[in-house]
Amino acid sequence: MQKPSLPKGTRDFGPLQMARRTFILDTIKETFQLFGYQQIETPAMENLSTLTGKYGDEGDQLLFKILNSGDFAKDVKAEDLGNGPAALLNKVSEKGLRYDLTVPFARYVVMNRNELTFPFKRYQIQPVWRADRPQKGRYREFYQCDADVVGTDSLVCEAEIILMIRRVFAKLSLQDYNIKINNRKILTGIAEAIGEAGKEGPLCVAIDKLDKIGWEKVKEELAQRGFEASSVAKLAPLVALESDLAGKLEFLKDFLKSSDTGLKGVEELEEVFGILEKMGQDLAHVDFDIMLARGLSYYTGAIFEVKVNHVSIGSVSGGGRYDNLTGVFGLPGVSGVGFSFGVDRLYDVLDELGLFPAESHSSTRLLLAYFDQAGFDYALGLLNEFRNAGIKTEIYPNPVKIQKQFDFANKKGVPFVGVCGSEEISTGTVSVKNMATGEQDKMTLPEVLAALA
Amino acid sequence: MQKPSLPKGTRDFGPLQMARRTFILDTIKETFQLFGYQQIETPAMENLSTLTGKYGDEGDQLLFKILNSGDFAKDVKAEDLGNGPAALLNKVSEKGLRYDLTVPFARYVVMNRNELTFPFKRYQIQPVWRADRPQKGRYREFYQCDADVVGTDSLVCEAEIILMIRRVFAKLSLQDYNIKINNRKILTGIAEAIGEAGKEGPLCVAIDKLDKIGWEKVKEELAQRGFEASSVAKLAPLVALESDLAGKLEFLKDFLKSSDTGLKGVEELEEVFGILEKMGQDLAHVDFDIMLARGLSYYTGAIFEVKVNHVSIGSVSGGGRYDNLTGVFGLPGVSGVGFSFGVDRLYDVLDELGLFPAESHSSTRLLLAYFDQAGFDYALGLLNEFRNAGIKTEIYPNPVKIQKQFDFANKKGVPFVGVCGSEEISTGTVSVKNMATGEQDKMTLPEVLAALA
């Protein structure tokens, strides 16, 4: 007899975890919808031709590939063996599992471009699979939760991303967090301004270590990466800059005066803030981080990253504006801006901060309990009344001792037990016990409905 | 440049389809929860040792297998080739995609048996994958939607399944349908009573064709399947039986008087009906079908199947009671009863009958439209007011001609457009156009909120 197990890096979600995940996802979905985003879903399997070459060599390695059905090995020859997996792969597999939601979305947009109404705002919440080495907090199956608007370069979209993040976090009772924002054009401009045009990539990688290793070490790394000493010297005042938002913008307008691209980035950022102001919104939680470079190779405008303070978990949301979502599938010029929530990380943050509502433990509100057959029959007759009033109600289905019924309610996290004894039967009442406080009240049906609905 | 495509047998769900699927699934989820069922999810991938041997030889063929990551072919030798896929399979693959929700649920119960509270009521709504030949209405990826209660043999569960089906169908506005119900023990009893004990399987297969081929042909088939002429003769009055529920039960009590098992089946059925009566419920839509044999090899008690009348689609729901969910994983004695909704088929039924609510077309209620920059700024200032009131609101993000904004609302199915012109700005109003009726009303903000909330 086999002892069953889970594939490594995968998880079951039991009732408690599902209730909590649903709490997070419902909050996110409701917010996306409030801002006009529409849900789509794409298949778990995509053709390998759709997936490969989109995530770099490492990504191609991490794709889960699906064996062709039937006699998958019929085209394999002895001489195909021993040359590593690449030679064999295209003979035995033509499909892979979704690796992210961006490439399937791009494919969807291309395949449906004549039917879609642009600007097209879509959200998508589905699992993705990566053959990563499993470790704490990193799984081979995990959910992504993306929202993108394509077919417009309006900066209203960027402003609304900030509003959506703030709304989701408020609904989740998260208060201490930063929405870091930057603009790729500013990074491009900085590289130009210090005389190292085109090298914003290595520049950001090095600067990113500033907090950890200090400016002296960062300077060494920049030198190693081929930056001129004079360039690094020009960079110093920017690195040393400590200022509020207005001061940062003022500084950059001077620092970037030789770079049209850089100035355009500052202008875009100011416009996003201006739109927020027109919307009657402040800049709470918004933190302009001049060196933020998340996903640099992909983003062309705004860049976002959200971190919750005082928790052990990294960024829980991020995104940015891109120029060319679908070019690789033959449809150029589809620009847009998108962001995503890291659902697993948000779960861990809420868990660490104890912010999950107690309600989400069990959805059942009321268990009807009884001592004997007469009580059982009485309770059966009441079930429908409670359910018709929308109260999630159960009855313990077998006649067992009432203590066992209470144990069941306790273990399942049912907040109220309605005792149906001989006195309750004769008076047409139910004795409702609040499992948290221990209080018990004999109530008429309308009273129960009013108390629990 | 590659032209992207979908793997055959898979589908994208666009916004309209997703809204409609969500309408169906939310109805089902809400009902499951009202009856105390809790949601779980299991991984898309399972170990092949969990999956193989559970679905018969054909099922094993239809499992999607996942290539091992890394150098998957490192153990493959030349002599492994040319002998068909079976010899190679265990060298290149150890995981497969979920084929149904029952086996993963059984695995889950076994792995979590010490933490679960029994009776355990779970529901699960996830896609499954089968390497079937794709054809109309049959896909390689489709959703299953299962509810099971395990760890009790109470017939209250069977009665509540009937209630849940009726509630879901009422909420979906489905009125003309039958919940066919039978009991495996009755089928066993019939085989015993006609002197063909143990042959209820072939008996049901033959009888199932009665409507199509007539009694004479069914008799021939029974003879071919080894039934004695005297047995077939004993069966004739049962086949000819046309009666109401009471008549059927009366007939069977006599017909099955030699079979304890058969009489037990009748008794269980009567108890289910008795529980419904104690619950104050009638037998609307309930149709006792003496020959219903869905999934015979698996079920040991009640058997359910639901068909909508006057549509071209087969059964949309079904299930039954089983004895031994988890025996194959080394945990005997876990009995239960479960049923599932065919989400794709329900979708097709509602589509065929035109029962999808118009509301589900788009979630956005209001598009703010404008003529110029002043109107755009004014609209930006209003967005938050509407959204804070829970009204799903959008603004066309780029300044374009107002006709294009109306076209956008039309195509996206937004029911109201709020025009922000110079007059509206000066009076602090919005002119709200009902896109269905063409009516347009100038309203103050509180009026708009009242009208649309």
Short recap of the structure:
Chains A, B: GO terms for molecular function: histidine-tRNA ligase activity. The first copy, chain A, is of the alpha+beta class.
List strands and helices in order, with pairings.
The structure is a homodimer of 453-residue chains.
Chain A: H1 15-34, E1 38-39, E2 45-47, H2 48-51, H3 56-62, E3 65-67, H4 85-92, E4 93-97, H5 102-111, E5 120-129, E6 141-150, H6 156-171, E7 177-183, H7 184-193, H8 200-207, H9 210-224, H10 229-240, H11 245-255, H12 260-278, E8 286-288, E9 302-308, E10 317-322, E11 336-341, H13 343-353, E12 366-370, H14 373-388, E13 393-395, H15 402-412, E14 416-420, H16 422-427, E15 429-434, E16 440-444, H17 445-452
Parallel strand pairs in A: 1-5, 7-8, 12-13, 12-14
Antiparallel strand pairs in A: 2-4, 3-4, 5-6, 6-11, 7-9, 9-10, 10-11, 14-15, 15-16
Subcellular location (chains A, B): Cytoplasm
Keywords (chains A, B): Aminoacyl-tRNA synthetase, ATP-binding, Cytoplasm, Ligase, Nucleotide-binding, Protein biosynthesis
InterPro entries (chains A, B): aa-tRNA-synth_II, aa-tRNA-synth_II/BPL/LPL, Anticodon-bd, Anticodon-bd_dom_sf, His-tRNA-ligase, HisRS-like_core, HisRS/HisZ, HisRS_anticodon
